[in-house]
UniProtKB/TrEMBL annotation:
Name of the protein: DUF2062 domain-containing protein
Superkingdom: Eukaryota
Chain segments annotated as transmembrane: 39-64
The UniProt record lists the keyword Membrane: yes
Organism listed in the record: Iris pallida
Keyword list, A-Z: Membrane, Transmembrane, Transmembrane helix
Length: 134
């Protein structure tokens, strides 16, 4: 089902987002279950460590089993990915404020130094997770 005309993105959006959404709706899942599953997928999809969200959603699906609709959880997680990536730097800065840690400069030289020189106990990348977790 074609809805949008966005040039080059139109086939990709239809194939990856719109068509799976319509397939989920056509299969007859209950609205409360779909709403809960979508909220769960977006909430877990905003976890500030990239790549972990798929495992979190998989664990939630395994734990909740029939109480959530697995395809809608994963679709919402997929849709939340751009939001997650755009929130990494604000989570990093807020985590620095909450933990009182030093300011982490975001330049290529600082990143290279952090990866190659700094000792492992100085993993500042945990600041976003501290902010998200409270």
């Amino acid at each position: 089902m074609r809805i949008w005309r966005l040039g080059l993105l139109s086939p990709w959006i239809n194939r990856k987002i719109i068509d799976p959404l319509f397939q989920i709706i056509k299969k007859g899942a209950e609205p409360k279950q779909l709403a809960f599953s979508t909220a769960l997928g977006i909430t877990l999809g905003l976890f500030p460590i990239c790549g972990v969200t798929v495992f979190l959603c998989g664990m939630a699906i395994a734990i909740l089993r029939t109480r959530c609709h697995a395809p809608s959880v994963m679709l919402a997680n997929f849709i939340a990915t751009p939001i997650e990536l755009s929130l990494v730097i604000p989570f990093l800065r807020l985590g620095e404020v909450i933990s009182g840690g030093p300011h982490f400069t975001l330049t290529s030289d600082a990143l290279k130094k952090w990866l190659l020189v700094e000792p492992p106990e100085k993993y500042y990348s945990l600041y976003p997770m501290r902010c998200w977790g409270g």
